[in-house]
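For the sake of transparency, this paper describes our internal protein records without simplification. An entry from our holdings is shown next, in its original layout:
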Amino acid sequence: MALAAHIRDTACIGRDWSGWPEEFQDPDSDSVKAFRESHAPEVDFQMFVQWVLDQQLEQVAEAAGDMPVGLYQDLAVGSSDCGSDTWAHQGVFALGMNTGAPPDDFNPMGQNWIFPPLLPEQLRQSGYEVFIKTLRSNLRHSGALRIDHALGLFRLFFIPEGRPASEGTYVDYPAEDLLKIIALESVRAGAAIIAEDLGTITDEARRGFGKMGMLSYRILYFERDWEHETFLPPESYPEESLSAVNTHDLPTLRGFWEARDISIRKNLGITDDQAHDEALAQRDIERSRLKDALSPFIPQEGGDEMRKISLAAHSFLASTPSLLTSTSLDDINGSPDQQNMPGTTSGHPNWRRKSPVTLEGLQGQYKQNESLLAPLVHIYRETYRTLDERDV
């Protein structure tokens, strides 16, 4: 980071290390070593910043230490092609390739996540050093860790740089080794592991996750009897799972109800007019069937329809056998906008939305019963009390 800042300031070159002067592109070069010595204060400053960040995260973890789970973190599926990981470990990354997903009904053009995948054979030959270091860093202050796109432990979709996702292909990974490493490191850290096993997932992968004690990730929108096009009842959710209404890649509950995600996808050019109209018609059906599934949990009183639906959705999840259930801050705030729109790198403010309510403001709303937080806390407290009485 110190080297990136220096080159940016002196040569007006961005932080993408592939555009740096050649002598600085190799982290083991004499020029890099000389820079480290001649610019020690800048290097020390960057180390200090990282230390401060780690201290802050540690304090957050300590504040959550008395909770049953603690801090729940997320392990991203990859690293930026212009970041420090790829610069420092160039030999194990497939530079010139991008990771993504093939075309499907949700993303007709496929997805290109614009970061290089790890090379499976080189990763194995290195003793999985990068994977282990990454895992340990993410588990360091975690009570639970969600592994994004967990199918990537078995295979990843490689897309040649500059080519569409339709021209990509799957490459297999040493899944058994990677799963065993995760199991070992999670036990050492005392953290639960949640495998994000949504979308196109193989039976082999599901068995592998279950064998290692990883929790499945069950999302209300997707838990359906697809043959009869109905939503599954709460009791059908597996116990070894984390259940939730949605994820950061999916519409918030309000966004789903208002079909905001469908409109945004059309405005971004992801879908054409015909696909947009078909999606709206399908959403009308989905909304009606979801309301049917939630009907036993919809309160007679409790405000407008959206508030009642939100309370019902979380009451529904609280009644499932899932060991863990999560609630998003966006749903608590009633936001219509999702954090990330898969398949986009521009046009949508991915990962840049700020909460309209501060933590202090949320605390005040809770005390005054002005948001969904207070009734949601009541729902889950009632559930836990019931579970305790049954000695589960």
In short: The chain is about 45% helix and 10% strand. Residues 1-63 form one domain. The first helix runs from residue 2 to 11.
